[in-house]
Amino acid sequence: MKEKIRFSSKLGLIAATVGSAVGLGNIWRFPAEVQENGGAAFLLIYLACVCILGIPVMLAEFSVGRAARADAIHTFQKLTPGKPWWLIGVLGVLASFIILGFYLVVSGWTLEYLFASVSGSLFTPDEPSGSVNFGAKMQEYVQTDVRPIVFTLLMIAINAIVLWRGVKKGIEKLSNVLMPLLFLLLVIFCCVSLSLPDASKGLKYFFSPDFSKINGSVIISALGQAFFSLSLGLGVLITYASYFPGSTRLGRTAATVSLLDLMVAILMGIIIFPVVTSFGISDSESLRGGTLVFVTIPEVFTHMECTRLWSSLFFLLISVAALTSTISLGQVSVAFLQDSLHWSRRKAIVCVFLPLVPVSLACSLSQGSWNSFRILGYNLFDFLDCFATNYLLPIGALLLCVYVGWILPKNTLRDQLTNHGSICAVWAPAVSMAIKYIAPPLIFIILISNAL
Ligand code: PFF
To answer: Of 181, 390, 395, 228, nearest to 325 (Cα)?
Structure first.
């Protein structure tokens, strides 16, 4: 039997896993959540969610992935043969494919904005007064048919090329370059932001807690954010952990990945809030998702010197964050076809990315001329987003926790957390308790509240 691939260095496996975690979730959802939900109070709640729920669920995924050394579906077949638990893996592969379908479209937009920033076309005036209407630009770049499709296809091609090169030469090598670049860009933007006139006011807002805003729905929203941001519940971490060497300390790895992911979210706050106060942005809509990234931030760049340079660097930052997340999502399906069906990597990639083309293109068109085609009141893009992130992801995580907590022999988790007894992990019983008793009811509450 072929020797299973391993990441070649500790740094490489951390870079790849952090690459999966750090994505549009940190950049485009986090600042708005903080602004709407009590500044640092939300940050504290989010931190608690990461510790109580995020890290234990991450460790559950790491443990089964490394114990079985297989893809998301085969892992369950290997650990509990003859039982239907592999369906958890099916859910993961399905959900990661669906998320990839629309995430590639957004990644395509970021690439489109990167090109438009470098060429300068993003800043060509479109009003008689000579100013640029970024809202109209966004409509033109996102809601027309052809342009976004071209960039979505480009993003699909880049992903396929990276995965074609394999885990070590593709995913690991790329993450080793892109993750340091991402942190460097974040630090540069922090310095720029902190030099703005009202930076201290923004920071004060970000770091002072307003607990009166905290209620049940804020906590649910923090839990959901932690899930999406840490890439939990989709089999991505099971797949990546199957490439971890036996000597990797899973506890340390989970803590490092969660901390770095949190750090990116905090750095984003340090970048955004000085901008908010210095440019007098008061409505939270300006900080939400696409509006923040494609309208508010480019508008801010026009008030600075070297507009094109800053804008190019910013969209490079976002494209990098998006790319490392999409390749992790793609690897779930590719690994399944390779491991479970014994297909060659190339055949697997063709069979994953070819069907992705129509799915992503339909998602892209659903922002444009297909917008009137509705499923339960949503266009296709929003429907898939809502269905996968609100339902498939928590259901997958819930079943995984039940499986690891109640079905898997106890020693499998313990062996993985302690590297078969060779390292001391005093926290291991607490993690096991959290997976068994705390995570399932909390995830169940998220699910119910998403359904209501
Ligand atoms: N964690 C990524 C983000 O914050 O944007 C999104 C993501 C990637 C979710 C991979 C799930 C996943 F499996």
So the answer is: 228
Residue nearest to atom 10 of ligand 1 (CA): 231
99 C-alpha vs ligand 1 centroid, how far in Å? 9
Q: Determine the atom of ligand 1 nearest the C-alpha atom of 328.
A: 10
Is 267 a pocket residue for ligand 1 (Cβ < 6 Å)? Answer: no
- The reply to whether ligand 1 has any atom less than 6 angstroms from the CB of 37 is no
| Spatial distance between the Cα atoms of 36 and 10, rounded to a whole number of angstroms | 38
CB 415 within 8 A of CB 67: yes
Closest CA to 315 of 98, 108, 51, 161: 108
pLDDT digits (tens, 9 = 90+) for 249-289: 999 999 999 999 999 999 999 999 998 888 888 777 787 77
Question: In the prediction, which pLDDT does 265 show?
Answer: 93
- Ligand 1 center to 30 CA (angstroms): 13
Query: pLDDT tens digit string along 289-334?
Result: 788 889 989 988 998 889 999 999 999 999 999 999 999 999 999 9
The pTM assigned to this predicted structure is 0.94
Helices 250-278, 173-194: inter-axial angle, 10-degree rounding = 30
Quote the CA–CA distance of 370 and 381 in Å, as a whole number: 10
96 lines ligand 1 (CB under 6 A): yes
